[in-house]
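Example record

The entry below shows one chain as it appears in the dataset: sequence first, then structure tokens.
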Amino acid sequence: MTQENSAAAPSAAAAGDLTIGADLRVHRLGFGAMRLTGPGVWGAPADRPAALRVLRRALELGVNFIDTADSYGPGMSEEIIAEALHPYPPGLVIATKGGLTRAGAGHWGRDAQPAHLRAACEGSLRRLRLARIDLYQLHAVDPRVPLEDSLGELARLRDEGKIRHIGVSNVSAQEFALAQRIVTVVSVQNRYNLADRDSEDVLRSCERAGIAFIPWFPLGAGRDAANAQRAIAWLLARSPVMLPIPGTSSVAHIEENVAAASLRLSAREMQAMT
């Protein structure tokens, strides 16, 4: 494993770029904001000023893609993003998601009914202080609601100018294929890491379609900094459509994560990790 420009400060730009849709050009290493909340992804973080510092440091390190959801907190992650970064600098893409419900810490439910998605999107717009959300993702398919209904509502929100692009999350290959027939899908966000590759077929579908694949829980390979950096470097090398979004509540850890953008694994290392 080698590190390019080891004397330079860490920068997400070292990961290269990816275009989401036809017009959102971002660095291929983003930031996931789920952990900027309380335990169980519920309520306020124990140290709110630290959460603000993490977000501001992310931008200093070149991160220009931040992923969140209305269910993180709920609402807390989006509020903290706006508090830390608004007014947003040019080129920053904030993606959020709707379709999950919360009954308490560690509890997650699904509601992808059109009325719920509309209310969720409009709530996200208020909390993020945005007129339009660049990337709005269906957080999960609701088995009680036809996918045509859920994505149809997101398409209406897009036509109204409240959403720029539509993505899907936590989908099977079959659900992704159906989603593509209903609306223009520009991204997929599924769990994927060194230890969990159940979404390999979805990743391959995204590659064929030229669609961004955003792996959540990207650091599933280990807990120390060296393992985390190798896990990120492996994801970046795994596919040109990969957009990892490692999250943290620590400034030191985000600096370590972003440093992985300049790591290059050898062919032998890639083979051993694959």
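Notes for this example: Residues 84 and 215 are 24 Å apart (CA to CA). The mean pLDDT is 95.
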